[in-house]
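pls ignore typos typing on phone
zinc ion + seq
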Amino acid sequence: MSRLRSHKETHLVDRIGWLRAAVLGANDGIISTASLIVGVAAAAANRNDVMIAGIAGLVAGAMSMAAGEYVSVSSQSDTEKADIAREQGELRSNPDGELEELAEIYVQRGVEVGLARQVAAQLMKKDALGAHARDELGISEMTTARPVQAALTSAATFSVGAAMPLLMVVVSPANLLVPVTSAASLAFLAFLGAVGAKAGGANLLRATVRVTFWGALALAITAGIGKLFGTII
Ligand SMILES: [Zn+2]
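k done
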């Protein structure tokens, strides 16, 4: 067994990126669709209406997540590309200045001047752009933005989350739609919160309570509004 493999905790950050995104997407799907269902059901709609509203909510939410994620990650990717291009230009036009710049970064981090120059020179000899991208711009392989992947992942995880309360509409007795959907959705949220916390090495109880509290608040507010409008109209 190599030394690196025994240090499992250093790899936590690798998976926390996609896992956090997946859990967040599913949370969004559960909260927004369950709220929609509970709101419409509280307004005394029948199961069919509730189902249609829920499915529309799932589709709309998945699209909006995908579009939002695509735009956000694309603009991040554009910024990174522009930064890299500028860095490339600077490396070509002013290699000595760039060597000093990189060495200065290591000095700031606590390396002594002579050694910092040596490290900078050796790193730049192998991959000058990579060294500058990583240590000057903070762009590494791991953080490189992938808009399409991000968009598809968001839409998929949102849909999986949204399907859970929708399923409750199908299996719940018609007169218990609101309590069954609410309770089941909160249980799903708590479960996801625990999974996310466990995988991320965060505090289990705090993460679970937090997500369940906000979910309950969202459900209560939409149920209240649904009830209000159901009585008025
Ligand atoms: Zn540079």
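The pocket of zinc ion is lined by residues 87, 90, 98, 101, 132, 136 (CB under 6 Å). Residues 83 and 147 are 17 Å apart (CA to CA). more later
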